[in-house]
Amino acid sequence: MDPDYFKSYEMSWGTLGTMRPFSNFHPERDAMEIQTALEKKDAVTLVRILTNRNSAQRQVITETYQGITEKDLVSGVKKALSGELETLLLALLMTPLQHEAQRLRQAMEGIGTDEETLLEILCTRSGKQLKEIDAAYSELYKKDLEKDLKGETSGDFAKLIVALLNKENVAGVVQRDIEALSASLNGKKADTEPWINILTSRDSDHLNRVLMALELESGQTIDQTLEKRFTGDIRQGLSVLAQCIQSPDLYLAKRLETMKIPIVRGVMVSHCEEDLLCVRAAYLKQTGTSLYTALQKQFKGDHLQALLAICRSED
Q1: Is the entire prediction scored with pTM above 0.90?
Q2: pLDDT tens digits, the chain, 315 residues: what are they?
Q3: Using only C-alpha atoms, what is the Rg of the chain?
Q4: Is 138 a member of any domain?
Q5: Domain of 110: which CATH number?
Q6: Parent domain of 128
Q7: Residue 46 class from Cβ within 10 Å (0-12 exposed, 13-18 middle, 19+ buried)?
Q8: Do 239 and 226 form a contact (C-beta atoms < 8 A)?
């Protein structure tokens, strides 16, 4: 891993991202190069520029391009490109908040709901971030995110999803929480309410102590306990939440391991300015292969080059 990327930079939500501000940034020059590249359908130049600027700089480029050409950059990219490369570069042109809002919207559209993507975003984001994503969703779609989520889910799973969206840290007593979760498993049917309430309202340090104590008490992993005592969507929801409490980087690495294009694009664009270096390290530990190498085995062409530029380097 390149140690230079661990230096402290202002990024959208963190400092362990693979994308950082381009030091020799000239938005007018970038805008003019992009204009020429769009006319020539020169994907190489578009990838080079858009994957080597951070999100804030790409927003400046978008505004500068509009000012110089009186044209919309997003429309230009749609006209010049197609397929997965187009989708990836359009994702990069969004702000991080808009991108997360779009992913939530897409997870609820069409036949069937993509519960895993809903859980990924809601479980790996803080309460503050989710409030900002909620506002971006409202601005983009003129809809209420909580209402849409309720409309796409039901039962205990809906309660969990809404609790995740509105999560905030409330002080708790570790021993009391351990006892509440343990007692909830004693009946013929496990009680989901304490799990939803506690796991969505405590900080990760507190919850890690609680989950570790439960594992020692039962002699099973939390995932094994959830597998035995819960069923359906709520089991999946609590399992993802527990994984994200214990190691969000490992959970995201496992998501990337699927190598499904929407998942790879979603995770990499969402985390490239925040903690993709950590996810890369977890991926290497989980699979024995670097993410950079895995991408090369799965994808090709300009789409691959854009993904590699976001990943940034070998581990």
Answers
A1: yes
A2: 333 333 333 334 446 999 999 999 999 999 999 999 999 999 999 999 999 999 999 999 999 999 999 999 999 999 999 999 999 999 999 999 999 999 999 999 988 899 999 999 999 999 999 999 999 999 999 999 999 999 999 999 999 999 999 998 888 899 999 999 999 999 899 999 999 999 999 999 999 999 999 999 999 999 999 999 999 999 999 999 999 999 999 999 999 999 999 999 999 999 999 999 999 999 999 999 999 999 999 999 999 999 999 999 998
A3: 21
A4: yes
A5: 1.10.220.10
A6: 96-165
A7: buried
A8: yes
